[in-house]
Design goal:
412 residues, alpha+beta, 3-stranded antiparallel sheet
């Protein structure tokens, strides 16, 4: 058994299969993958890693298993899935996951190939575990998978608390102890026990507050968009492959971007925090009158987004790679599908909770479309973007006037 001092959960005791997996190269790589990607350009202390988070998920999974009185091979499989659940992350976590998926068909929770061979497979075999069943649990499939990859899983419980702790914001505080103890099995399904609706609401409220403050802070989104563009250039102009990219860590990717002529300029900008600025920062109502209907901008794929960028650049006579269009996916709240026991009946959380339905509406109000460009070009790029994208922003666009201050400038 190994005892590790953690900044969030104090002492974590790691034993059995998790202890054996701890020093395998795929798990140790997570020490060099930052949990929040480029968010440390906003919050300088946000330098925690996927390794720390994996330990926290393992710790909470163990608590959930104890509370549910689950033992034997089912518990061993769950502990293995908890410590391994993030080994599929590429460098900078979610920042370039979309690019990796486009080129490999794999998201970070598609880990079958990473568990099927090598040292991880050997450790799992030594503990009587089928790697395919562990990989399925990481994807959210199979018995007890909801503990690690469900609507109200221990993954969310840890990252909300951990991200709030390391950024210093006061919004991620949740009663994860009560949430873990509130999990129960009902007809074979994992649900929240009676009296825990408010506990679940607190998790969703914490996430709703963390989204605009941390996860979708405009500086984090700009730097992420720049990182993606640099990686696109790297893949287009070098022998680097998406498969190689997927297994890099953050330092390796930074070095590759600096050494590639096509991506070096953006790499230097990220190193110096000389970031692009917002030319447009539009609400969903500025983009479409029907947030639930089809829309050419909201539903644009990567090729269509690049076409929009090229057209905006052509109208402003700037380099076509100097315009970044950042279209977030439509907001969802998977946690609202969680099942809770109310008077002996299993109900969906959003059916039971008025607060959750209000948070779903708040998500749509928090959604933003961004267009970013170098500081000298933001005004002309903003005007062109409004026209090209057909935005209805009531005669105003974002223009940065002084560092850290933004105003709305009228345009003709």
């Amino acid at each position: 058994m190994t005892t590790i001092k953690d900044s969030v959960h104090d002492h974590i005791e790691v034993s059995g299969v998790a202890d054996a997996l701890l020093d395998t190269p795929p798990v140790q790589r997570l020490r060099r993958v930052q949990q929040l990607g480029t968010a440390n350009l906003v919050y300088p202390s946000a330098n925690h890693t996927r390794f720390e988070h994996s330990l926290g998920v393992y710790h909470l999974a163990c608590e959930a298993l104890d509370s549910l009185d689950v033992s034997g091979v089912r518990a061993t499989r769950t502990r293995a899935a908890a410590i391994l659940h993030d080994i599929g992350h590429g460098p900078f976590s979610h920042a370039i996951e979309g690019l990796i998926h486009e080129r490999t068909g794999k998201y970070h929770d598609d880990v079958d190939d990473l568990l099927a061979a090598g040292e991880v497979a050997r450790v799992l075999g030594d503990h009587g575990l089928d790697p395919a069943r562990v990989a399925a649990m990481v994807r959210g499939e199979g018995d007890l998978a909801g503990i690690v990859a469900g609507e109200l899983d221990v993954d969310r419980m840890d990252y909300l608390v951990r991200d709030a702790h390391h950024t210093g914001v006061p919004y991620g505080t949740i009663d994860h102890g009560r949430l873990v103890r509130g999990l129960t099995l009902h007809d074979g399904a994992l649900v929240l026990d009676e009296g825990n609706v408010q506990t679940a609401e607190s998790l969703l409220l914490a996430r709703a507050l963390m989204n605009p403050t941390v996860y979708n802070h405009h500086v984090a989104r700009i730097s992420t968009a720049m990182l993606r563009r640099a990686v696109e250039r790297l893949l287009a102009t070098t022998d680097s492959t998406p498969e190689t990219l997927r297994r890099m860590d953050d330092p390796a990717l930074r070095t590759a971007l600096r050494d590639c002529e096509a991506s070096a300029d953006i790499a230097r900008r990220l190193d110096r925090r000389a970031l692009y600025k917002r030319a447009v920062w539009a609400e969903m109502a500025d983009v479409t009158d029907d947030p639930f209907g089809d829309d050419p901008v909201l539903d644009a794929d990567r090729g269509e987004i690049r076409a929009y960028e090229r057209e905006i650049a052509a109208r402003t006579d700037v380099d076509r790679d100097a315009v970044l269009l950042d279209v977030r996916s439509r907001p969802t709240m998977r946690e609202s599908d969680s099942r809770v026991l109310v008077n002996g009946d299993v109900r969906r959380l959003d059916e039971q909770s008025t607060l959750v339905r209000a948070l779903q509406m708040a998500q749509r109000e928090q959604w933003r479309l961004g267009v970013y460009a170098p500081a000298d070009d933001v005004e002309t790029v903003g005007r062109a973007a409004v026209d090209v994208l057909g935005l209805d922003i009531d005669g105003a666009l974002v223009s940065e006037t002084t560092r850290g201050q933004y105003s709305l400038d009228e345009f003709e």
